[in-house]
Specification:
CATH topology: Rossmann fold
CATH class: Alpha Beta
Largest sheet: 5 strands, parallel
Strand content: 5-15%
Strand order of the largest sheet: 2-1-3-4-5
Helix content: 55-70%
CATH architecture: 3-Layer(aba) Sandwich
Order of helices and strands: HEHEHHEHEEH
Structural class: alpha/beta
Number of strands: 5
Radius of gyration: 16 Å
Shape: globular
Length: 192
């Protein structure tokens, strides 16, 4: 048990450090892109499946409510939360359409979308990325491993250098938190 415990924490730290070393400049750029979208009256849409769906909800809440500082709410929507929309699309069409139909209904040119997929191969995420690009939505992709099928798609692609799903998810939520904090700083010039 001790080995499992220590290995998990050490592996998480090593993967996060490798990720930061690779993507530090891109993370800052993405924070600027999201900040600029908010300043222009645009919104942020976030989506993914399973644990990534939970991360989408979590991050949307950080933007809408607050992250670490008191500030006005920011327009972010998790496309993973409306059970009636999700189940009607899944039932009437196909599960692979649950995000693309919402992107087509809600997204406008200038908006930003964060797609989260640990494997990079989720058909419903891929369809939504393609629709986002066609509309003129800036697409930011969080993935892992080899990047999967989303590699080469989107405007910004963050690939966690691990094949271990828990480590990938840990980096994704840390990345989301860091982006929140950088956006807050960019818009409101405060660190807590």
């Amino acid at each position: 048990m001790d080995l499992i415990l220590k290995d998990a924490f050490i592996d998480s730290a090593v993967v996060k450090k490798a990720f930061l070393d690779t993507y530090e400049k891109e993370i800052k750029k993405v924070a600027e892109v999201i900040s600029d979208a908010f300043k222009s009256g645009n919104k942020l849409l976030i989506y993914g499946n399973g644990g990534s769906a939970a991360d989408a909800q979590h991050l949307a809440a950080e933007f809408v409510n607050r992250f670490k500082i008191e500030r006005p709410p920011l327009p972010a929507i998790a496309l993973t939360t409306d059970s009636s929309v999700l189940t009607s699309i899944g039932n009437d069409y196909d599960f692979s359409d649950i995000f693309v139909k919402q992107i087509k209904a809600l997204a406008r040119k200038g908006d930003v979308a964060i797609a989260i997929t640990t494997s990079g191969n989720s058909p419903n995420v891929i369809k939504a990325i393609e629709a986002s690009q066609a509309i003129g939505v800036v697409s930011i992709l969080f993935t892992g491993g080899s990047g999967g099928r989303v590699l080469g798609m989107g405007d910004y692609v963050f690939v966690v250098p691990s094949d271990n799903t828990p480590r990938i998810q840990e980096v994704h939520i840390t990345l989301g938190h860091v982006i929140c904090e950088l956006v807050d700083y960019k818009l409101f010039k405060e660190f807590s």
